[in-house]
Amino acid sequence: MDINIGIAEEDRKATADALSRVLADSYLLYLKTHNYHWNVTGELFHSLHEQFEEQYTELADAIDEIAERIRALGYRAPGTFKEFNELTSIEEESEEPEALEMVRRLAIGNEQVLRTARQALEPAKEAEDEATVDLLTQRLHVHSKTAWMLRSHLE
């Protein structure tokens, strides 16, 4: 069935592609945050364990919303590690950093998602796709606040 939601196909494609990058960055940040939740140690364990859980839980919901918006635009949402690795600007890690280094890396990751979401705003605005603009604006708010809270641990 043809999609007729008032947004031209080329605009839907550009927006879905940009959202796919936001999805990939969000998913990799989710994985990193969940990993740190499991593996944080030290005197900050309890507070960081809880803070990381709040963050990865929020990211899990956001990932679903982003993927559903891509689908609503008429495109397949990426959903494999291979696809995410090709689309993401978040670096995967294999070492186990100390607690405050985890915090620093998560602050950087949230700032990266902010930059990716800002880039995705352009095609959504050009397409006058208010639903995507609203979704991205919410993501900007959440990641700005999260990055600030994480940076506050490092001051």
From TrEMBL:
Region forming the signal peptide: none
Alphabetized GO MF terms: ferric iron binding; oxidoreductase activity, acting on metal ions
Stored Gene3D superfamilies: 1.20.1260.10
Ranges annotated as spanning the membrane: none
Domain Ferritin/DPS, chain residue ranges per copy: 17-155
InterPro entries: DPS_DNA-bd, DPS_DNA-bd_CS, Ferritin-like, Ferritin-like_SF, Ferritin_DPS_dom
Family as reported in the entry's similarity comment: Belongs to the Dps family.
Protein name listed in UniProt: DNA starvation/stationary phase protection protein
Source organism: Fodinibius halophilus
